[in-house]
Design goal:
The protein has about 210 residues and is mostly helical. The protein contains nine helices and no strands. The N and C termini lie close together (about 10 Å).
Length: about 210
């Protein structure tokens, strides 16, 4: 009797793209008609998060959160535009993924500066843990895919982190946001490691 590796399930991000296709597709088509490109949208999102990080570092948390709230959806629009233009390819996906990491780390970097200047060492450490967790969530997935596994699972992927961080910054509750991400981003990385381990063990059983 053989055991098949666990089948990947649709992620929350996948479901959101389906649920909001009524908005994303027409908006992407409109922006394309204006002459904007997917890469331009990616850069606009990155720039908005850079400005948001600047305000967060200055202690203007609500303003920074608003910039993050406005900027991050560009990530969904650039992908939708690329698909409409027939330009969705490996390079675009690579650039989009790298830019996502920069955008998220910029905001966390702004929070690290803010907590450090405020003398809140514990929150600064939690911010470092949050940044490490966000990077590891992506790294585990990328490394798994490079050796033939998939790791699109987890409790707190990028969309969920956005839904935690942006609203709580707007509500001026950065400490709560940081601790949620610090704990659950690292938990998600461990979930993905366990998921890959299960696939590796199933693969070994198939060989035996």
């Amino acid at each position: 009797m053989t055991t098949q590796p666990p089948a990947p399930k649709p992620t929350f991000t996948d479901r959101l793209r389906i649920w909001f296709s009524w908005f994303l597709d027409p908006t992407a088509a409109f922006l394309t008609r204006l002459g904007l490109t997917p890469n331009a949208m990616t850069l606009l999102g990155l720039t908005g998060n850079l400005i948001g990080a600047y305000f967060v570092a200055r202690g203007e948390i609500v303003t920074g959160g608003l910039f993050m709230l406005i900027s991050t959806p560009f990530d969904a629009l650039d992908g939708a535009m690329a698909r409409l233009r027939g330009e969705a390819d490996e390079w675009g996906a690579f650039v989009d993924s790298v830019t996502d990491r920069y955008s998220e780390l910029l905001i966390l970097g702004g929070l690290l500066v803010y907590f450090t200047q405020a003398g809140d060492a514990l929150s600064a450490v939690a911010t470092f843990a949050a940044a490490a967790g966000t990077v590891l969530v992506s790294y585990v997935k990328a490394r798994a895919e490079s050796v033939g596994f998939e790791a699109k699972v987890g409790f707190l992927t990028r969309v969920e982190r956005y839904l935690v961080l942006a609203p709580l910054l707007i509500l001026n509750r950065p400490v709560i946001a940081i601790w949620i991400i610090a704990i659950f981003a690292n938990f998600t990385a461990l979930q993905r490691i366990y998921h890959v381990r299960a696939q590796a063990h199933a693969k070994r059983r198939l060989r035996s």
